[in-house]
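Anyone else keep sequences and structure tokens together like this?

Example one:
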Amino acid sequence: MNDATDTHAYSVWLWSLAILALIGVGIVLLDQLGLWLERKGWVYYRKVQRKGSTGSNVFMQMQSFIEPQIEKLIEIQQEKRRDERRAGDDDRDEEEE
């Protein structure tokens, strides 16, 4: 009776380990799929950063109605984007000269 219990416990342990390994392989495969889609230019995933996030801008505007102090954060973000654009324009001007 003790051998049967040990065999059952070993079987459960082995199946649990196999399931965890399959989950790990699945996560790695999904990660590789995301990187491949990013290389194709179809999605932004890990390596390439978007220039601006429209979704977060919409959320921030809605949030400003609820919390007026968020307005300052929106202004800072917009100013930062303007500065980045100006810096990019300055770099292009220097390359053309």
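And example two:
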Amino acid sequence: MTQRFGIETEEFKNLVADLRRRIEQIPLDETQRVEANADLSTIGAQIQSPDPKHSVIRACMVSLQNILNDMPLEPSTAATLALVSFWLHTNPPI
């Protein structure tokens, strides 16, 4: 059985904060940066919701994964992509 990295946990909140810091360090173009920030803001809003939508959070994580997949695979990008991919792997669609 795969352990879920629940969206209601403090660990998930920490993961999102870490992703935000990491993505700020990656040389994204303006469109990618706006998209990544929108995804992270949406995830943040869902975390604050009394009824967070797993499907919305998952869609944002997939979007972040796609943005990172389009980047040259430098160490900082690879590490951030690994975090997003790990979360997606441990949190299959409901």
